[in-house]
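Ticket 4471: requesting a sanity check on a complex prediction with manganese (II) ion. Repro inputs:
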Amino acid sequence: MSDRATVLMARIDELAKFSEEPHRLVRRSLTPALQQANDLVASWMLAAGMTVRQDAVGNLVGTYAGVAGASKTLILGSHLDSVRDAGKYDGPLGVLAALACVERLHEEGQRLPFAVEVISFVDEEGLRFRTSYLGSSALAGSFNPSWLDYQDEQGVVLADALRRFGGDPADIASCRRNSDDLLGYCEVHIEQGPVLEAEDLPVGVVDGIAGQDRLTVEFTGVAGHAGTVPMARRHDALCAAAELVLAVERTGQATDGLVATMGQIAAEPGASNVIPGHVTLSLDVRHRDDAVRTRAVAALHDEATAIAQRRGVHLVWTSMQSTPAVPCSPQLIGRLAHAIEELGFKVQHLTSGAGHDAVPMASLTDAAMLFVRCKGGISHNPAESVRLDDVNVSLETLYRFVLGMQRDMAL
Ligand code: GLV
Ligand code: MN
Ligand code: MN
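Returned C-alpha cells:
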C-alpha cells in the first residue's frame, strides 16, 4: 500500500475539522471554514512545487509547471465546499487525489510536456446560494452575473461574500479559460452509489452525468390565528407545500430514472399557533435524458399552479439553475479505462446521478471522472466512507492516466 493513500486519508480527517458548526461538517462556499480548508491545501500545494493563487471567483488554483515551452494545461480537481451535515470525502477526495498525483511527479523530479493544475472549485454543492458550480462555470465562461445578487439564508449577497473571501465580482471574466490552452479535465470522486460495491470493484469510469434543474418554489397564503380561523377559511401556505412535496415524490416514482427532491423547506412566520403564511421550498429534478427532465419540471409547475389555485395561495416558481446532461470525453474515458486495466481490474462504466464540476468543465474541454467505491453507496451523510486500498487504486489510476497523456503527446 502506498504511503500516499495513508497521507490522503489523514488529510481528509484534517480538512473535516474545518466546519461552520462544531458537531457536524458544514462548509458552505465563501465562508471562513472554506478559507481555512483552502489555506491548508494551498500549503500542501506549495510544498509540492506548485505556484498557488486564488482566482476572482474564489477557486484555489495550484499550478505544477511543465517542461520549458509547455503550452497546454491538464486540470485535475474537485471541491472543498460541502452540504449540511456532510461526509468528509465528497469533494476533498478529488482535490487531494489531484494533489497526491502532483506530489508524486514532484518527488520523482518529473516535468511533463504540459502543466498540471489542481483546482479546488469554490462551490460545487450549491448549499449556500442554491446554485452550484460557481467556480467551474467561471472557468467555462457560463457564470451568470445574476447569480451575484443571490442571497444566503442570512441575507448575505453572493457578491459581498465573494469580496470578503478575497474575490472580485467585477472580474469574474478573468477566470475564463481558453479551450485551446487545455488538454482536459479529470476529477476523482466517490461514487455516491452502490454499483462498485455490488461489483466488488475499487474504481469505475464515468460515461456521463445527469442533467439537473434546481428551483425555488414559494407559496404565499394568509397567516392567521391557529385558534380562531375556521378550517374552511384558511389559505395555509404549508398545506399547499405539503401537497406539492407529495406530488414531486409521485412524479419521480412514475418515471424511470427520474429523481425529484424537495430538500429544503422554511415556513413563516414559524410559530405553533400561527397558520403558515409563506413557505419557501427547494426543488431538485434530475434525469440522464434532458427532454424527460424538462417535461417533468413543466408538469410539476402545472401541478403547483393547480394546488395554488385550489387553495387560494400565490405561487412563485423560480429556476435557480438548469444544466444539461453531459457525456464524458471518449478519449479520456479510454485513457482511464486503460489505466484501470493495467492495474488488473475490470472496467466498470457508470452514469453519475450526482452533479459535478465536470459538468461546466465538459463545455470547455474534454472531461472525465474516476469514481471510487464508497461504503453502502452512501453520501451527503456523515456515514460516507471509503477504503484505504480503494484510494490507493484511484491514486495509481490517476497517475497512470496523467502519464498516459504524456505518452500520447509524444506520439
Ligand atoms: C452535488 O453533490 C449534487 O449532485 O447535488
Ligand atoms: Mn461532490
Ligand atoms: Mn455532493
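Notes from triage: The longest strand covers residues 211-220. Leaving this open until the requester confirms.
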